[in-house]
Amino acid sequence: MDPDNLNHEAKPEGGGLIRTRPRPGAGGDAAARPQARPRTEGWKQLTGPDGRPTLQFASPRVKQPDTHLADLTLAEREAKVAEMGLPRFRAKQISKHYFEHRTTDPERMTDLPKDRRDELVAAFFPPLLTEVKRLVTDDGSTIKFLWRLFDGALVESVLMRYPGRITLCVSSQCGCGMNCPFCATGQAGLTRNMSTAEILDQIVQANRVIAEGGLGMGRQAGGGAEPERVNNIVFMGMGEPLANYKRVMNAVRRMVAPSPEGLGMSARGITVSTVGLAPAIRKLADEEIPVTFALSLHAPDDQLRDELIPVNSRWKVDEVLDAARHYYETTGRRVSIEYALIKDMNDHAWRADLLAEKLNARGRGWVHVNPIPLNPTPGSVWTCSTREVTREFVDRLNAAGIPTTLRDTRGKEIDGACGQLAASR
C-alpha cells in the first residue's frame, strides 16, 4: 500500500461513502492529501548501527525496591509474619490497613500489638512512591501526579473522574524502551521496570486522595453507599506493560484479588495496553484473567507503522492483529484498537478502509476502534487531524461495520494525555 498513490473518487449522489484505493502511477490527489512522515522534534531517536531505532525489551540490571507487602501473596505475608513470631492472622490485619484503609501509619493500626507496630511497618512497607507534584485540570476532575521512586526515578499517573466511574492511568516502567517518535515517555529510553508494589501503590495513593476529597465533584458517602475509589485502571502511562510482563501480571492479580489479599477490583475494569508484542499478547490470553486488552495500532500498513511504532519491525501488523484476534477467541473479551489520528500522516481515507478490511477479514464483532484526537500543535508534524477528516475516518469505519468511538482525552493542559507522560524534573 503506497500512500503516495491514492485514488479519491468523487462521492456518489446522496453523500454515501465510496471506497478509496491505491492506484498505479502518481496522481494529483497526492498533492491534495500529502503524506507526512514521522520524525522526532527537539530530541534525537537512539538508533543502532543499521540506522534503525533501537528497542529495549529487557530492563537494565539495577536495584529494585525492597520487598513490599503488595509484592507478596497473602500466603507469603502470613509466612513472613510467622517468621517474626506473630500469629498468621496479623498478615490479614496489616493487609487490610494498606488495601482498604490506605495507610502505612503504625499509629492508625490500633488492632496490632502496640509494641510490634513499628517493626511490622518497617518489615512490610519500605518507601515506594513520594509525591513530588500534583497538577489539576478539568475543574478538579483530572489530576496528574509526579512520583519519585526510592532510587530517584520519576514516574507519573493520571486520575480522572467520569460520570459513574473513576479511572487511573498507571505507569509500569520508568521510561520506555519502545522508542516511538511521537511519544514523550520514550525520549530518555528505559531506566528500569517498576516493581509490582510500585505499580499498585499508584492505586492505593490515588484512593487516599479520593477519600480525602482531593478529586473534584465527588459524591457524598453515607446512606449505605460505599466510599468512592478507583474502579477503572488503564495501563497507558509510562512504559510498555507487556515488556514488564511478570510484575504487571502480579499487579493485576493483586488488583482483582479480594481483600485482604488485594484491592477487590473487577478484571473487566482493567485495561492492559501494548504497542504490539505479539507473543506476550498470546501469553496474556492464556492467563484466564478477563482484563480488557488494547492494541495501540496507529497505522494499518507496515510501511508507515515501521516508522511510527519501531517494534513493528519485529512483529508486523498482520501478526499483531492475529494475536489480538487470538485474545478475543480465548477470552471472549472484545479487543480495543487505539488509533491516534495525526494530520496527513495516518488519517487518510484509504487507511480507514484498509483498517476495516484487515479487521473484518478476521471476523465480526471482536473489535472496537478508538480514534484518539491529538492536541492541535501548529508547526509540528504531530498535530491533530481536521474535524472533517476525523469525521470521515470514523464514518468509514462505522460504515464498514467496525464499531468506532472517538475517544475523550483528558489532561491535555497538564501534559497528561496519551503519549505526553514525560516525567520532567
How does this structure look, described?
With 425 residues, the chain is an alpha/beta fold. 27% of the residues lie in helices and 16% in strands. The chain has eleven helices and 13 strands. The strands form three sheets. Strands 3-4-5-6-9-10-11-12-13 form a nine-stranded mixed sheet. It has a two-stranded antiparallel ribbon with strand order 1-2. Strands 7-8 form a two-stranded antiparallel sheet. Strand 9, helix 6 and strand 10 form a beta-alpha-beta unit. The protein starts with 5 loop residues before the first strand and ends in a 26-residue tail after the last helix. The relative contact order is 0.12. The N terminus is likely disordered.
Structural class: alpha/beta
Indicate the low-confidence ranges by residue numbers.
1-15, 22-31
Biggest β-sheet strands, sense, barrel: 9 strands, mixed
The strand count comes to 13
- Principal-axes shape call: elongated
Portion of residues in helices?
Answer: 25-40%
The average pLDDT is 89
Strand order of the largest sheet: 3-4-5-6-9-10-11-12-13
Terminal CA distance reads: 42 Å
Radius of gyration: 23 Å
Number of helices: 11
Order of helices and strands: EEHHHHEEEEEEHEHEHEHHEHEH
What fraction of residues sit in β-strands? 15-25%
